[in-house]
Amino acid sequence: MTDIYEDIRKGEKGALVSIAAYLILSAFKLVCGYLFASSALLADGFNNLTDIVASLAVLIGLRISRKPPDSDHTYGHFRAETVAALMASFIMALVGIQVIVEAVRSLFEGAKATPQLWSAGVALVCAVAMMGVYIYNKRLAERINNHALMAAAKDNFSDAIVSVGAAVGIVGAQFGLPWIDSAAAIGVGLLIIKTAWDIFRDSTYRLTDGFDEDKLLDLRSTIARTPGVEGIKDLKARVHGNHVLVDVVVEVNARMTVMEGHEISDSIEERMSKLHNIMHVQVHVEPKDEHSMISPS
After folding, report:
1. What band does 105 get if pLDDT is binned at 50, 70 and 90?
2. Chain centroid to CA 107: how far?
3. Which of 19, 145, 195, 201 lies 20 to 30 Å from 226 when distance is taken between CA atoms?
């Protein structure tokens, strides 16, 4: 369990990197937005302030998931990170809707003052910086298999695209084409909502104990090839935070001793840990009915 908790601690570092980046970039965008009279850059800056809440939700979820098991949570608190990812998806969806509403509203407004071209450069620099944060968090999330941090990484990517959209709108305004800003914003808003939906769908799938059928077949194949296993009566698996819990009922020779059955259970647990990195396997051993294959006369 020590390695699991250490991975979660690494995930917290990723969430802190996101928060620090949002604080710095939002302040930079807001100051430059006022200086260069860019409403698009100001909106992007306020958007980053909202994203701090999502990153804080992920950080809190990771902190909770690192708590050791207690009398009320005998399996630990690992699912808190999935709940955190779910909360992040709600915040992202709200941001996406806000971006679209603001874009549609701007289409029906009168002419605006043309922002200075410098603001487009600021937006692109911020987009590159946020893309760097996205790549860092994505790689870290994949390495430690952390769902909440991956949600934060997807949020980072969405914010990088928002900044690119702001830059496109600012450049378009230089050529007297203010509608480009709104069109880009609507596209960005739809992308954010799509990303939020993907995170929401995956989080709810995990929270309702959904598990990929192909992966379950792989687990079944590994158990079936374990020496001494003559059949598998039942196999269930579910995701609990960043690791998998497996419950299996295997059939063995009815004449086996208790010690031999115990050794088969240990062998299954060892193979699942080695081949699939699954540390929690509950094995129930039942005697194989020698007459189960004989049809009644």
Report:
1. confident
2. 34
3. 145
